[in-house]
Amino acid sequence: MLDTLDAAAVRRWCASGLAALQRHQGEIDDLNVYPVPDGDTGTNLVLTLTSAQQALAMDLDTVADGATTPHGHALRLMARGALLGARGNSGVILSQILRGFADALATTPTVGGPELAAALRAATSAAYAAVARPVEGTVLTVVSAAAGAAEQADSEQLPVVAREAAGAAAQALARTPEQLPALARAGVVDAGGRGLCLLLDALVEVITGESPERPAPAPTAARNVPPPATAARETGSPEYAYEVQFLLDAEPEAVGRMRDTLDALGDSLVVVGDEGTWQVHVHVNDVGAAIEAGVVAGRPYQISVTRFADQRPSAPAPVSDGRAAVVVAAGAGIAELLAGEGAVVVPGNPSTGELLEAVLGTGAAQVVVLPNDPDAQAVANQVAEEAHRAGVKVSVVPTRSPVQALAALAVRDPRRHFEDDVIAMAEAAGACRYAEVCHAGRDALTVAGPCRTGDVLALVEGEVHLIGTDLIDTCVALVDGMLGGGGEMVTLLVGADAPDGLTDAVCTHITRRWPFVEVQTYPGGQPRYPLLVGVE
Hints:
This protein is an alpha/beta fold. The chain is built from 19 helices and 16 strands. It has helices at 7-23, 25-29, 41-57, 70-85, 88-105, 113-129, 139-153, 158-179, 181-186, 191-208, 252-265, 287-297, 332-340, 352-361, 374-389, 402-410, 418-430, 471-483, 502-513, and strands at 242-250, 267-273, 276-284, 299-307, 323-329, 344-347, 366-370, 393-396, 433-439, 444-446, 449-451, 456-460, 463-468, 489-494, 518-523, 531-535. The strands form four sheets. A six-stranded mixed β-sheet has the order 13-12-9-16-14-15, with helices on both faces. A four-stranded antiparallel β-sheet has the order 2-3-1-4, sandwiched between helices. The protein has a four-stranded parallel β-sheet with strand order 6-5-7-8, sandwiched between helices. β7, α15 (374-389) and β8 (393-396) form a beta-alpha-beta unit. α16 crosses α17 (418-430). It is globular, with a radius of gyration of 24 Å. Pfam families: Dak2, FakA-like_C, FakA-like_M. Residues 8-205 form the DhaL domain. InterPro entries: DegV_domain_contain, DhaL_dom, DhaL_dom_sf, FakA-like_C, FakA-like_M, YloV-like. Residues 211-235 are annotated as: Disordered.
């Protein structure tokens, strides 16, 4: 039994945690909140921690740098490796948990109970800071419970605090379906939280020499949780009459508070920049409140206010084009399309290191990244921070589908300033509604009702809207539903497994039912999704 956490124990923890994640990789992958056959949380966690172990292996002596203790040095190697190898939202959050843990213990001479509790609290803070809009019932809840229990243990003994933290994490994991309706509907616990519990149990085993007897969480009975009464509006709603833009000199902490204020005032919010100077854009009705938020945060200048009713197009002033676009995409056809728009294409589900290499490889001083997936977006945000340290300015346009990336790339204009170009791309992406069609991987209860394995699911903006048994009929109904809300152009990306006749059937229907709508069809080659749809 260990009284303190030394460098050798850190190495054993990393190896034991990776082995546990590998054993339960399939189980974690199956913890999907919707029955879409692309669950990869377990895979992403394994790949992320594999990179952490590789970083430790490249520094066998774990020699401290003079200010850092040997165990602190090992933890920082582990955290840095996890960051560069982070895949998906779960991998990024894990890397930040490890970073907070390492920062708290970097210069601590010995790690006892109080120090472990402080490290878990720092890990919790880092994890929450990594998520723009934290949601309870996720891995964030699990790590917070672990930190709270460690503090309440109030013990000098490392084994006592470690056991209390791991036990509380397991209890918090079991409660996640009560906090997140999507988990309750699917009858599962949070996948990322399950992975963290395995890592904490591995830490207990390293410290105490005993493996906690904790069976895998049993699936809960899916219950009929009603869908939310409201849904997030699309970017660019006509509800707001004014566009406000300004440059801002402010500290990052103040910018974060301002972002929250502006988010409550309007929509189409984009805040991009680096340490010190920021470009701010928002659509609001209360212009004074928006500018006041900037004054509270720092020094706003070059303030521009446009009333949409009076807006007239104007020719942008030409500027130098030392910039590039990097796009994440799965599918040979999609990659070819995006490359044809002048983007550097990175295969789907990249690690932080792989995406960073692509960004730096462009040789451009200003790079816009289009992730095309919520998990890849978390990786892209980390890449933006890493690239800044290398002197490259990276802005992430939060695209969730390749059809949004095509819309964003179509409005790129090298004559605009980089920040203005990013805003225009973000608005174009937000104005493109996206959907995808796939087959259910298992029986489940969705917001659209129960589905069976093999059913055809049509997801709009990530939510299951239609459930059918015939692929063509479901695709046609999906397009009708989307065009019923308005639209002038439909983009169809056909998947690798799409049957013959799917495209012709959908296009023929659109031409007959919606004669004034333009249709563009491309072979996307994407796996798992026979059809991706974009409506502009």
